[in-house]
Amino acid sequence: MRKDHLRLVTDAGASLDLGWDYGIPYQMDNLSGVDVTLKTAQGVNQQGVTVEDQSVEGVTHEVIADFWGADGEVQADRFLQLMPFFTSGTAYFGDKYFSRFFLQKTPYTVQLHPYPRLDFMLYRPKPYWYSLSEERAEMGGFIPRFSFPVCYDSHQYSEWRQSYFLNIRNPGALPVPFTAKLRSTGLVVNPVIRNSVTGEHIGFDTTLKAGEVLEIYRTTTDRLAVKLISGGVETNAFALLDEDSDLMELHPGDNVLTADAASGREGLQASISFYPLAVGILPEVMK
What we know:
By secondary structure, this protein is mainly beta. The chain contains 1 helix and 27 strands. The chain has one helix at residues 72-82, and strands at residues 6-10, 15-18, 26-28, 36-41, 50-56, 59-66, 88-93, 97-111, 117-124, 129-131, 135-139, 142-144, 158-160, 165-170, 176-177, 179-184, 188-189, 192-195, 201-203, 207-208, 213-218, 224-230, 233-236, 249-250, 253-260, 268-274, 277-278. A hairpin with an 8-residue loop joins strand 4 (36-41) and strand 5. The longest helix has 11 residues, at 72-82.
């Protein structure tokens, strides 16, 4: 299959596919290239300017889709009906990247013959794409080792991980948000994850009981959220977050993290997962 597959999954539950393999070839601009706004100042008799600040905003994409299939008119009408104003959702490109989007301009008919053509605009509030390939690592606790074939005389079902330090590498060029899960096999007081190099940390003022899990993650609106899972019941635990916490992203390159606690660290297991970022996409070199 070609690497031009664009799937738009709306928050209302609709799934819309574009691409040559779906009989809907399209054009989409701004897959790479992000405008950077510079704040400058110039002193008296200064040659040139001083750049005081840099900022970036979201990215707008114009999409022009040609409905070549035998049911092109039906498919075009489906897009018109399922993408009304106030539509938002997640865009998946080339089965490799994803990003949140908001509909900036609803689809409108450019032509009907010899085939329908629609034009619409998407806005991505973040100037990058996330990779669909999740990176994951764990610190402390038991590691499952059960696998087939099984030798019951010598088979190892799990292994205790002694190390509470782990180097997590962010392969991208930008800081990336992450999800962390803190699991407890005993009483763990004030669990924390700390960057051993920068001193940044994210901690909690609570005592975890055996079987409880704290999960730190970002919502679809990119807000930091915390939930506690106890006895299969999830509750909002944002109030447990240490107000001095400042470890919110993984830096580009190496991130040497440690899982710690005021007491009970031996019963703490931490897992870290994240999706690497891509600032731009070049479909021609995608594998």
